[in-house]
Each structure stands twice: as structure tokens, then as C-alpha cells.
Amino acid sequence: MNEKRSASLLRRAVKTMKKALALILVVAAFSTCCNRGTTTTTTGRPTVAFVLKTLNHPFFVDMRRGAQEAADRLGVTLQVQAAEREIDVEKQMQIVENLIQTGVQALCITPSGSREIVSALVKARDAKVPIIVVDTRVDAKAAADAGVRTETFVGSDNYEGGRLAGEYLVKVTGGKARVGILEGIPGHETGDSRLRGFRDAVKATPGITIVASQPANWERDQGFNVFQNMLQAHSDIDSVFACSDLMALGALEAIAAAGRTGGIKVIGFDALDDAKKAIAAGTMEASVAQFPSEMGRAAVESAVKVIRSEPVPPDIKVRLELVTRHLLKPVSLLVTKIRRAGWRVRRSGEASTRRT
Amino acid sequence: MIIASSAAPPGARSVDAMAPPTSRAHRLLLPARQFGTVIGLVALCAVLWILTPHFLTVSNLLNVAEQTSINAIVAVGMTFVILSAGIDLSVGSIVAIAGVVLGTALQAGQPLVVALALGVATGFACGLANGALISWGGLPPFIVTLGTMSIARGAALLFTEGRPISGFDAGFRVLATGRAGFVPAPVIVMGIVYAAAHFVLTRTTFGRYVYAIGGNEEATRLSGVPVRFHKTMIYGVSGLMSATAAVILTARLNSAQPIAGMMYELDAIAATVIGGTSLMGGDGTLGGTLVGALIMGVLRNGLNLLGVSSFLQQIVIGGVIVVAVLLDTVLKRRNRT
């Protein structure tokens, strides 16, 4: 009886399979013609791929906005993809591999790892896709070893940003401070440069002591926990430099939890909206502003130039500003510096009168 | 795909506890369910073929296979563990620590073979430690591997001071960049791993014990099987597979990262479960797991090709996992009545 039952089960399974396959084939056959149609119509518009580290950070969301605006203005199709987590180099590599398959004409990328991404860039090179690096530099030696050539780098000088923060701290504390530092993920070029800039700026001032420096991996909750622990160990900390605003905001909450709001000067990086609010409210001291949407725009503009075989400068610097309470109309401390004359990055921002 | 039914001789299962304790009709339905997963994969491919002209090209399919290989290899170990009614949350961290040991050895100028042996041994040792704590310590696998997940990750970070180790010889990188004919090396490694693991699971006593332990551990123990030893080995296999994946990952990125492999445990569990392996143990096949891993790989690739938002991709992948398991449960329930 069992045999009979199982035989009928198998027969049923085979029947279902046949039906499913037939359906698939019909749909597939029907659609192939439409397929060819759509591909030919889209080939007139060049496609630029933009691979971000992640999309769950306001910084990259802004960058995408700037890139999309530029793409719309220049008449190119923009394909934006990002890994779920900022540190997932392998996923970013997969995305690059997959986008190359779609025959994009240029690749803009914010590398999740300065060295690791080179393996993915090799594949882009093999597919003859020009590469525009944004925000985080590719390790020069690793790229040279692999024979990867990038068209240009678009980004702010993170070292300079760290210096801005350090110099401001010296000024505002009168040269006497006990500082706790929240670092990004160790080994990340971005965080390391900011840290070096900050340390170099305060080095010459003997009254400033760095009492603790710990990674909080760019994250808000880790910023909270790590700073809470720092306060336990060093209750005399009176200033904080966080390599990103998310960590700074975490630290602010830890300070509030300890009932010391206003007693500790917090300087962050990125000038996120939440950070600007905290600065306006006086709970946070300052933040170094980058202009991610400007980066996105400049990257897409460069990509289009490369596609049209026009020259692009090897390095496009996007300005940095220090946002403090006095100047929530920010003063430009490092104005857009561009190595080659004749190249202008459009100023981002609220009051810009861009033509569309 | 008729693995489970061909593996246990029909006469054997009525007398001992070593064969999977599944009803006969259930076992006969297994191949059908497996075809269900294959149909799922074929349907998915067909849909993508319709939606984008870039999907069904030789270079893209090889691309998908290469991207799938790492998760697929980790999922082999996960399948062994889940078949024995356990769980291994530490696979991602073991990938990281095996990778950094391998990377450090390579950077220290050790010969390739020595470095590979060190990396693989590290993974195997971590797995054995898991297994020993579970078997002899009598602790739940969930707790033990949760602990190891954190310990191995911390050790990898401590060992490297949080920095990635990058830049290896071309001789090592061949494991990721090399091609035999047109097939990428990681795909070949994946093929070898699956062939070997399939043989172990279906043609050796150890393999039969994996099913038996998952089906009814107490009965297996009473039949005189050294359950503790075999359970330890099962987690050892999982560690070994994670280390193998670490070798490919390190070669692929030309870098060993202490933060590598995060969330790999979830991808591996998903591939195993989509492939029809029951979380209750004792029921499932490696062929199913491979198809499960391919479904996940094809989904990710296809969603990238289509330019679907990264957020939507997570929803789709989560949905597929739930639907696959739902289908599995419904089929089983219908079969029981």
C-alpha cells in the first residue's frame, strides 16, 4: 500500500514539475522579444554605476542625492548599489562584479576597504570600465601592484579635517584639555587620517593630554558604550573628539546619562543634521562638515567626462568646514581646492542656483 | 538528488536507530521536495532571464557561481551540524580567525602549504572545541557557539590589532583568480568540497551517524554509537569548512580581515534551510543545500543586475527564506496526514 501511495505522490510531483516548466518556457519565449526591444532603446543613454559603502548612513544618502541630480542633469542613467553594512568588502566586491555584467560605462566607488577593493577594481579594469574613486582613497601601492589605474579621486582631505578639529579644540579650551577620542574602525583610511590630523594639531600644545583613544566602529550605540566606559575609567575627561558624528552623538547620550551635559566639549565629524541641532542647542561644541552631495555630483560629472574622453584632474578636493554654534552660517575654512585650473566643482548647498 | 532514499538500505531502517527516523512515505517524498527547490531555482533564473538580458550569459553565471562558493562551502558544515539537530553560530568568526592566521603565516614568509595547513587547522580546532564543549560539557549548541562566535572574533581582532593583513603572492591568489579552462578556481574548490562531503555523508558510517544523532540522539547512544565523539567531529567538520571558505575569501580579497565573515552564519543557515534540511535534525541533503546557496546567490546577483534598491533586496531575500521554509513545513504536514 505504501508503494502505491508513494508512486502516486511521485507522479503528482512530476506532473507539477511539468506544468511549472511549461509555464516558464511560455513566459520566457513570450518575453524574449520584449527584452531585445528594451535593450536597444536604453543603449543611447550611458549608464554610470555608483557603488556606495552603505545606504544606512545620512552621509551616503546625501552623496546619492548629489549624484542623482548630476545624472539627471547630464542625461545619464545612474545605478546606485550599496552593501548592507559599511564594512562588508566582500559584498561590495560582489556588487561591482555584478554591475560590470550589466555593461556600465563608468564606475564610481566609495571603497569599503582601501586595499581589499583593488581585487574588484581589477575586474573593472579587465572589463575596461573606467574607475572614479570617491571619499576613501584606494591604497596607492596595492593599486599599482595590481596594475589598476583610477581616473580621479573625489573627496575631502580627512587629514585636514582632523587638523581643523584639533586646532579648534586648542583655541576653545585655551590649550588645556583632557581628551577622549572615539576612533572609527581600525585600518580604515578615512578614520586613520582624521585621527592623525587631530593628533598632529594638538601635539604641539603641552596642556592637551589624550587620556584615552578607543575604536567605536563608526556606530552610534558603540559610541555610547565606549564613551560611557571611558568616563568610568577617566572621570576627568573634559573633551571628546569623535571621528564621526554618529559616534559623537552616542557620546552625547552617554554624557547626558552621566548628568554632565554641557560639561564636556564634544567635537564630531560630518555635520549631520542631528549634530547641527545639538550644536545649536549648545550640547555639542563643533563638527567638521563634509559635503557628500558635492562629492556625488563631482564624481558623476567626472564619470561623464571620462565617458566622453574629456580630461579630468587626478584629484578633486571637496571643501571642508567647521560648524560651530557662532556660525551656523558656516564659514568656509578650506575652500574648494582644485589642482588643475579650469575645473570647478559646483558649490553644494541650500542657496545654490543650479541650472537644471 | 535521490540521496536520502538510496543511502539507507530499506531493510536496515526497521531494525536499528541509525537510519533517519523518517516514515517511508516521507522519505519517498524527499526527492520530490528537493525537486521543488530545483524548480524554485530554475523559475528564479527564468524570471531573471526575462527581466534582464545580462543575467543568462556565461560570464554572469560563472560570476554567480564564484560569488556563491564561499557561502556554499560554509553551508556544508552548517548542514552537517543542522542534520545532527545542532546549530553553529560561530562559522563567521571562524572564517575570520582562520583567515587572519593564514594571512599572518603567508606574510611571515611561510611556504604556501604550511600557511594553508595552519589556517585550516585553526578552523578545525575551533570546531572541535565547540563540539567538545557541547558533547562533554553538555551545553546547548546555541550557547556554546554563541560564545565561540564572540571569542573567535575577539581573538582575530586582538591577533591583528584590528587591522587587515593585505597583499599576498600570486601563487596563493590563484585559489581565487585562477581558472581551469573557463571555470573559476573557487567553483572548482566548491565542487570538490561538495563531492567529498556528499561521499562522507552518504557512504560512511560517520555520515549515517550524523543523521542518526539528529533523528534520535538517545536511541543512537543506546545502540552503542560513541555519540560524543561523533558530535565533536561534526562541529570539527563545520570548523574545517569555515576555514576552507576563509582560504578562498582571503585569496579573493587579497586580504585577511578580522571583521570578515560577519553574518555568514545566517547566510549559511538560510542556504541549508532553503535547501530543505530540517532544523529539527535528521532530515536533509547536501544537494539541497547547494541549491539553497545558489538560490541566494542568484537572487543577490539578479537584484543587483536589475538595480533594485539595497533595502528592497533585504526584504526579498528574507521573504524567500520564509516562503521556502513555509513550503517545506506544509509539504511535511500534508505528508503526515
Task: Explain this structure.
The complex is a heterodimer of chains A (356) and B (337). Chain A is an alpha/beta fold. Chain A is 48% helix and 19% strand. Chain A has 11 helices and 13 strands. The radius of gyration of chain A is 25 Å and the shape is elongated. Chain A starts with a helix and ends in a 22-residue tail after the last strand. The relative contact order of chain A is 0.11. Chain B has 337 residues and is an all-alpha fold. Chain B has one domain: ABC transporter involved in vitamin B12 uptake, BtuC. In chain B, the strands form 2 sheets. Chain B has a two-stranded antiparallel ribbon. The two termini of chain B are 25 Å apart. The N terminus of chain B is likely disordered. Chains A and B meet through helix 1, strand 2, helix 3 and helix 5 of A and helix 3, helix 4, helix 12, helix 14 and helix 15 of B.
Beta-strand proportion of chain B: under 5%
**How many β-strands of chain B, per DSSP?**
4
Largest sheet geometry of chain B: 2 strands, antiparallel
Q: What class, by secondary structure content of chain B?
A: mainly alpha
CATH names the topology of chain B as: ABC transporter involved in vitamin B12 uptake, BtuC
Main sheet: strand order of chain B? 1-4
Global shape of chain A: elongated
Find the CATH superfamily of chain B: ABC transporter involved in vitamin B12 uptake, BtuC
The oligomerization state is heterodimer
CATH architecture verdict of the largest domain in chain A: 3-Layer(aba) Sandwich
Question: Mean pLDDT of chain B, as a whole number?
Answer: 87
SSE run of chain A: HEHEHEHEHEHEHEHEHEHEHEEE
